[in-house]
Amino acid sequence: MRFDIVTLFPAIFDGYLTQSLLHKAIQRQLVEIHRHDLRDWSHDPKHHKIDDRPFGGGPGMLIQAPPTVECVEDIERASPVPARRILLTPQGRRLDQPLAEDLATSPRVLLLCGRYEGFDQRVLDILQPEEISIGDFVLNGGEVAAMIVVDAVVRLLPGVLGDELSNFDDSFSRGNRMLEFPQYTRPREYRGHRVPEVLLEGDHGRIAAWRAEASLQRTTQRRSDLLPDQANTNKHENSPDFG
Ligand code: SAM
């Protein structure tokens, strides 16, 4: 899978792209990440300016349409693989796991990171990108939002995680769309807190049943909006506490 990231601050991604899972995925050629400095498409050869004041007044600056549209067109021409265009904005569709799973099926995703007050509306009118938000709050720029999209998507690509199934049961994921069950590792007891006995007995059927019940109870307590069938909730209210 290929990502093209359009940004005014390509160096923000340096640390993120050179660490951990993402770095390994790049090295193993499971994903390509290309950063593009929007200033390279500036129409101002002297100062490489790409922003200007909004018509009608108001605080802040806007990213201009001509460099942005031409940048996206040039980037798209550089590879024959059609790109899914995404513009990061607090006004977009909220990113969630089904959307990340859907993006992971795309061979190429182009991410447009805003800064200042965002983009001139004609960027949206001409390029017609999908607009994606990472939540109902305002960041200084789209770079962190782009990293979140990349991070959520890359871990879903085949071969990136050691175990193909490890993203199946994660919270919100396609396994059941609920919160994940609690997990434990060694030691078996710590400060009086014991690992539930059923997890130590090696009976895979009982472990699966315990986990399904724990996942359901945790989801009922914390995120009942995720439950597939609200009628299921009542019968678990008196179950033991899974934490
Ligand atoms: N004036 C814009 C508004 O009110 O909708 C906010 C601009 S924000 C300061 C600058 C840039 O940060 C945006 O263009 C966008 O790329 C990015 N950004 C801020 N919050 C975001 C969010 N919740 N999700 C995705 N991108 C965000």
Please give a structural write-up.
The structure is a single chain. The chain has 243 residues and is of the alpha/beta class. It folds into two domains: 2-154, Alpha/beta knot (3-Layer(aba) Sandwich), CATH 3.40.1280.10; 178-243, tRNA(m1g37)methyltransferase, domain 2 (Trp Operon Repressor, Chain A). Helices cover 29% and strands 16% of the residues. A five-stranded parallel β-sheet has the order 2-1-6-5-7, with helices on both faces. A two-stranded antiparallel sheet has the order 3-4. Strands 8-9 form a two-stranded antiparallel sheet. Strand 5 (84-94), helix 4 and strand 6 (108-112) form a beta-alpha-beta unit. Mean pLDDT is 94; it is low at 233-240.
Blueprint of the fold:
Blueprint lengths: L1 E6 L6 H4 L2 H8 L4 E6 L13 E2 L9 E2 L1 H13 L6 E11 L2 H7 L4 E5 L8 H7 L2 E4 L9 H12 L34 E2 L2 E2 L9 H19 L21
Parallel strand pairs: 1-2, 1-6, 5-6, 5-7
Antiparallel strand pairs: 3-4, 8-9
Bound molecules: S-adenosylmethionine.
The site of S-adenosylmethionine has 19 residues, from strand 5.
